[in-house]
Amino acid sequence: MSAAPYTKGQRMLLALRRYIVFFLLIAFVLTTCMTLFLNLLQDATGIAYTEENLRAAAALTFGNVLFLSLFCTAVDAVRRRFEVERPVRRIVEGAEKIMRGDFTARIQPFHGIDTEAGFDVIIDCFNRMAEELSGVETLRTDFIANVSHELKTPLAVMQNYGTMLQSPSLPEEQRIEYAKALTEQSRRLADLITNILKLNKLENQKIFPKVQRYNLGEQLAECLLSFESTWEKKDIEIDTDLEEEVYVSSDGELLSLVWNNLFSNALKFTGPGGKVSLSLHTEGDNAVVRVSDTGCGISPEAGRHIFEKFYQGDTSHAVQGNGLGLALVKRVVDIVGGEISVESEVGRGSTFAVKIRRAAGEPHEGGA
Questions:
Q1: Are the beta carbons of 246 and 216 closer than 8 angstroms?
Q2: How deeply is 356 buried, as exposed, middle or buried, from its count of CB atoms within 10 A (0-12, 13-18, 19+)?
Q3: If you placed Cys at 323, which of 98, 147, 312, 314 could pair as Cys (CB 3.0 to 4.6 Å)?
Q4: 178-199: b or e for each residue (b if 16 or more CB lie within 10 Å)?
Q5: What proportions of the chain, in percent to the nearest 5, are helix, strand and coil?
Q6: What does the pLDDT look like over 306-316, one tens digit per residue?
């Protein structure tokens, strides 16, 4: 909704008010200066001014005050028109575009007399705000589009299999196969919703990690063992190198999300007969966890976006996933004050390294 402009009557009142302010100011200054000048001149020359002389001087002074007040009001009106009203109009028009949802709106800088401390500073802040809002809107649009796509796919599959299951002549073997497919897709849908809720909580709420001191190697072993059925089914070799007695002071529940997602990805992208490696070593004050696989690897372009929401290096979606796992991992690592990096080569696999500060009081062991 546009801001209501001043009416003609309001503009006249404002002009009159400014004129009165200038009149009073100039009248005070001129009257004071004239009085001092006449007193000094009378003392210096000994001339006595008559009432007629004073009346003529007062009339001339009053006329000068009226003229100078009118002149200053006119000059101020011109100055305000170019130095105030124009930039304000630009800012209001830009703000109205933002209010209508046009986040591409930008305001051209106004190069006035005092730009550093004037409206150019406001315009610069406005443009940066509009740029940030534009980025947020783009992320929101992409998020909705990706969620819609990820929800639509399993729902369509479930609908098709549900329709086929209604056939009375369907063989029992196919009925079981279709039921398994329905279960798999429903699980995929549940995982997607769970990850969305987790990521939303991590991003939009202030998370205070529940810090406790615990053995990191034991946690890694427990998380990896929960995937035993997966690696046995795909005949994947597991190689572990866990340094003993490595303790961290962190939120164990949050970090379990990191390890589970990294192990899940490593096993998912490693083909049958491949190899997944897990190592834990101390480096100075830090504990470094590395999860490596011999899977398809990540291209340099994908590596730059791998921690973004819904980004999937496998654009064909041949491998199941929703692109939220690594976004969760990155957010958790940031919350606990750690660092994560990835090294990868297409066709040769990937290595994710997570660096977490060790618990206070531990002896420094391992490489620097």
A1: yes
A2: buried
A3: 312
A4: beebbeebeebbebbeebbebb
A5: 60, 15, 30
A6: 766 554 544 43
Residue with tokens 């005092």: 114
For the chain, give the percent of residues with pLDDT over 90: 15
Which of the pair, 368 or 126, is modelled with greater confidence? 126
Q: Contact at 8 Å (CB) between 232 and 361?
A: no
Domain with CATH 3.30.565.10 in the chain: 212-357
DSSP annotation of 53: H
CATH of span 212-357: 3.30.565.10
Give yes or no for a contact between 266 and 292, defined as CB atoms under 8 angstroms apart. Answer: yes
What digits encode the pLDDT tens for the residues 125-168?
Answer: 888 888 877 766 665 665 566 566 667 767 887 888 888 888 88
Kindly give, in sequence order, each residue whose CB lies less than 8 Å from that of residue 213, ignoring residues fewer than 6 positions away.
247, 248, 249, 359
